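User: I'm curious whether this sequence folds into something compact or stays loose and floppy. Could you predict its structure so I can see for myself?
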Amino acid sequence: MFASFLCCQPARWIGSVAGAAFDSASINHVSYIAAVFLMYYFLQKYVVKSVRHLMERSVKSCLLFGAMPAFYYLFDYTATVYTDFMYSGTRAAVQFMPFVTSAFYFVFVLLYYAETQKQASIQRERDMLDTQFRQAQTEFASLRQMQQNAVAYRHDMRHHFALLQGLASEERIAEIKEYLRTAQSDMEAITPMRFCENETVNLILSAFASKAKQSGIQLTVEAKLPDSLPFSDTELCSLLSNALENAIHACDNIADSNERYIKLRVYSKNNKLCIDIRNSYQTEPLFHQGIPVSKQQGHGYGTKSMAHIVEKHGGVYQFSVKDGWFIFQATA
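Assistant: Here's the prediction. I'll summarize afterward.
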């Protein structure tokens, strides 16, 4: 409303100038009406889209945008309608409006810049969370492929048996032992370990158990989960993968491999997923608003992604440090 009132003024000035030039009230009115249509065309073509985008961003942006027209409206009525302050000719009346306009301009630019930076930061976080989510989808697809490879390998067991039978008939014992050793190694590499009834969790934990073993980390898992959980496969993958990946990364920084520990306890209670994961660490993490932060560029979004998933399902979470353990606990 205040912006509309402000936009009426140029048309009024054009009408007043034209009416004074021709000394005609009719010319004043006609020029005013023509200028109104001209202002409407100009605003519709060059202003409406930007203002609509501004209004969709935040309430604070709208308040900043409307502050100047609101001040002009109040000043105009106060100084010209209810009082004669503007027409008194005093020095304060002459200097007041330009000063306040300039002050409002500076304040608006500074505040709006801060608001724009805040919105840009939020958008960057959203983009990073989307990236984390897509990575989780890719990783889970890889885990699915590993499971399918294991199924295919088991399906081809008859071919392995046929080959072993041929070697046995020729009494080639050394080759049989070598073949069995290779086959066993291949099976262990592609066959997911079984921790609980939930197939998705088994795939994730199996993959990270292998990563922990390669890094010389002692991973202890206690998993008691049903086949069905109130999470999508991608959400489960993102939540558990980020938690375990952060734990492995923290343990990798410990020089003594005998001090690298990760303990994971995950179970279901009252149809809620409960997670307790704790790991040893070399350097105590820093926290900001209850969430651990990283000094490295591009890091720290995994914990935010975990918090987002838990909050999405109406759950609660906590990051903490106690007795040399970094602990993440969540219920959702």
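Summary: The chain has a mean pLDDT of 79. The chain has two domains: 2-123, 194-332.
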